[in-house]
Predict the structure of F5/8 type C domain-containing protein.
Amino acid sequence: MPDRDKNTLHININTGEVFEESPIRSYILRYFKGISQPRVLLLIAFIFLFVFFYGKNEESIGKNDIGKIESIQESDILTKIIPTEGDGECTAILLNWNRLDNIKIIVKNLCQYSMFKEIFIWNNNVDLHLSDTMFVDTHCNKIRYYNSPGNMYFIARYLACSMAATKYCYFQDDDWMIKHLRSMYSNFLRFPNLIHTDTNADVYSSTNWKWCFFDDDINLHSCYSWVGTGAFTSRENVLNSLKMTSKTEMSSLEFIYGDMYFTTYLNQVPYQLENSLIELPQENGFSLTGKDRMLNKLYMHKALIRLYNYLSLLKSKNNNNPSTQIIEDTKEFSPTLYERDVRSPCHNDKCLFLTNKHSFPNVKLFKYKPYINISESERLHSSFFNTQHFISYPYSHAVDNDNSTAWISQDVIKKDDYIGLDLLLPMPVPLTFNLIIDHNSDYFNHLSIQISHDGSAWIQLSPSPKLDISSLSSTKNNLLSCKFRIRETGFRFLKLVSTRDWNFTFSIYDFAFDGVDNNDNEVIDDTVNNILGNNDNDSGD
């Protein structure tokens, strides 16, 4: 038998107890009625028995939550510190159709991240047979692939995740390059019961406003979000969504369009981050315009109607038979949409931008009505509130390392409004922060600077750090730069809280931090050496 590359997985079909005991066996069988039995059995065997071959050799997980130290030399020692929480606990799921070159680029990008135990490629193209040699130039030892005997469309990613060897999954399509994975994953680990998605400002204005559907009477609180531009989810959520396909008696055609049902069926608002996206070549793909876009809206509408009818029936049964109530948790998970403050990843994937300022009206202003289709709902929302301001001045512009762009809030600053950063892990060294704004300078005289290790319990710094405020005369606007040094260590979160009302909005052009301070070089060097000593057994990305 020829040698087989250790970077890929070859699957042999062998029926046994795995499929019989699978938690989604019944759901799969329902949707293949009428299809030839040999083909169904072949597909099922492949789907559920590949779990036997999934990484028996567990990757070690770093125990030091401070982070790994990369073997590179930079002036800012923070480039050497990365989060390790959740290492090896996630499987990346990719769908291949007709853009294998894109898949290879994406694999190279994903392989560098230690959170991924495996990168599983599901090949939906029956005319292309994935083989070992196709991925040699990726130099990645995490690859697994599966050549499907038929096109399973979007549901394939959820079937793959349902049998992953890890408790978390990551999804993305083959026409995007996602560069802010550590920051998104760090927030996901704080709230793993919520799907975390990543998208640009234009789509974000739909997924947080036009595509949100609420009805408190039946505990409907669902927003639709794309997963193709990056999404982390728990395997448990995927299984729950698949179970809903049976509870709502979905048709086989609806089943294969799983992307249009997944986030809706969980009846929880995804935790969505906004930032700029990098496009890869997009020919031969599923379009978001024209006929494909209308199909998306059609199945989004079908998903909502099925969820609405299910929740209505559940409420009716409980009201009619209070002594035999059906116990099912349909409450909105915490943090709810209006309890969240994480908005965008920083340009270098080293932090997340925080603010309590929301950019759209309360989604409950429109009560969901199943007889209103998605296009009409979009029109109603657009006539009530124009999202163009947010699209032009989104959250991500506050942390994109570009002084020519800005996040400008929709309304004026009120007492207790804040901006801040999640640094992704407890900082072991003193930090210097730099805030560039287009505000009245008196704003800085009415700030409470607070830090936290968990984002819940906050400590006000007293005395407050010295603020070094200067004018940036080289810019077109009258921008102010405010630098300050925090010598306390061990905190992860920072926020600047306004202690009074103002008659102007937030206008944040940049908010960044580093660990460079010539006066602290000796302290920093000792700290880094200690961390390196504590991470001798850790491997970098």
